[in-house]
Design a protein that fits this description.
238 residues; mainly alpha; 66% helix
Length: 238
């Protein structure tokens, strides 16, 4: 790997400085009431410098969601290559709750609120890395007859994501009144019990070509999504 130049290192430091200043403002005033000038004043940078790194406030917010998503790329192999799909689902819930449970509760709530207001083009959940990984895990579990196949991988993944997002929002809205990580460790296996394969369920395995989402990939995710999709497609069981 090539060593970064001092200029590249400076750009990373400045960008991070802006993000940290934005987070400080979000905690203090809330995202809706934070202006770009507030962020620049907190970061001690010019407005022009802000626009050099971000097109607008939403662009900054999305960059932080991408940071969260990139953490899933680090564990993609572990989740997808695990021969026990049910165990991979448990690990998925563990990784999903990991970052939120150690961050500031107010800040987490602000980002969760922001996610609701972002458009499909800005942050389409079905094309974020964790969703692609999840669909791959579920499909392989269906092929192995470990997970029920009367619903498509995307339908089951939608259910997982609705539950995990719900826990994150509930935890943040209650100001972290309980241990999010522990709660999800206790409760998600109950949900996943309903995912197990049973002979009485219809076995309707979908076409492998329909497993991984392909529409509306945000520009911020294009490169990583393409690479991840290629890997996941190579790991689909036939």
């Amino acid at each position: 790997m090539e060593k970064m130049t001092s200029r590249q290192e400076q750009k990373i430091r400045t960008q991070q400085k802006i993000v940290e200043a934005a987070n400080t403002c979000f905690i203090r005033k809330g995202m809706a009431y934070t202006l770009i000038t507030d962020i620049c004043e907190e970061a001690e940078v010019s407005v022009g410098t802000f626009y050099h790194y971000f097109n607008n406030k939403n662009d900054l917010i999305i960059s932080q969601f991408k940071k969260f998503d990139m953490g899933f790329l680090e564990v993609a192999h572990r989740l997808i290559d695990n021969p026990d799909a049910w165990d991979s689902l448990i690990q998925f819930a563990h990784f999903f709750s990991r970052d939120a449970s150690v961050s500031d509760k107010t800040l987490t709530l602000e980002y969760l609120k922001a996610r609701v207001s972002l458009t499909v083009e800005q942050l389409f959940p079905r094309n974020r890395p964790y969703f692609i990984i999840l669909c791959t895990v579920i499909y392989n579990g269906q092929v192995r007859r470990q997970l029920r196949a009367d619903q498509t991988p995307q339908q089951l993944a939608d259910l997982v994501m609705a539950a995990t997002r719900g826990y994150n929002f509930d935890w943040a809205s209650m100001d972290g009144a309980y241990d999010l990580h522990l709660r999800m460790q206790q409760d998600m296996p109950i949900l996943f019990e309903g995912f197990r394969y049973r002979e009485e369920y219809p076995y309707q395995l979908c076409d492998p070509a329909d497993v991984i989402p392909v529409q509306n990939v945000p520009k911020l995710y294009e490169q990583e999504t393409a690479q991840l999709r290629e890997y996941c497609e190579s790991r689909l069981l036939r």
